[in-house]
Write a structure and sequence with these properties.
Layout (H helix, E strand, L loop, with lengths): L1 H17 L1 E9 L6 E9 L4 E9 L8 E12 L2 E6 L2 E11 L2 E4 L3 E4 L2 E4 L2 E4 L3
Antiparallel strand pairs: 1-2, 1-10, 2-3, 3-4, 4-5, 5-6, 6-7, 7-10, 8-9
């Protein structure tokens, strides 16, 4: 009975600590091919999430482009899985470490573009 209580307690603690807003800002310099990408992830109490990727390739040559992804999330131990609506067979997989979500596979392809993300950090309110 004590073991079951500990497992439930760990699940509840991890579950409540995961909710909130996470952000990351990456800038890559490559001359004409430089890019500026901001990631914003909102993990909500109702088991849903929204992920917004704002990308600007070059200040002078292109407008900002937004990629908006939403779906359901699930906790498995210290791992957070984000399932995109309509694509339940693939997921963003993060490992939680303190106030950071570290992406297990740091390259993600969406909208025929490849994005790089190493981690997201929880914002302070």
């Amino acid at each position: 009975m004590g073991y079951f209580f500990k497992v439930v307690l760990v699940f509840v603690v991890l579950n409540t600590q995961i909710e909130g807003r996470y952000e990351r800002h990456n800038q890559f310099c490559g001359g004409m091919n430089g890019s500026d990408i901001k990631w914003s992830l909102d993990v909500k109490k109702n088991k849903t999430y929204t992920l917004e990727i704002t990308k600007r390739k070059n200040e002078y040559l292109s407008k900002s482009q937004n990629v908006f992804i939403m779906g359901l999330w699930r906790i498995e131990g210290d791992t957070l899985k984000l399932y995109q609506l309509g694509k339940e067979d693939s997921a963003f997989v993060f490992c939680k470490k303190e106030d950071k979500l570290i992406l297990v596979n740091n390259k993600y392809k969406t909208e025929n573009e490849l994005f790089f993300l190493d981690y997201l950090e929880k914002t302070k309110k």
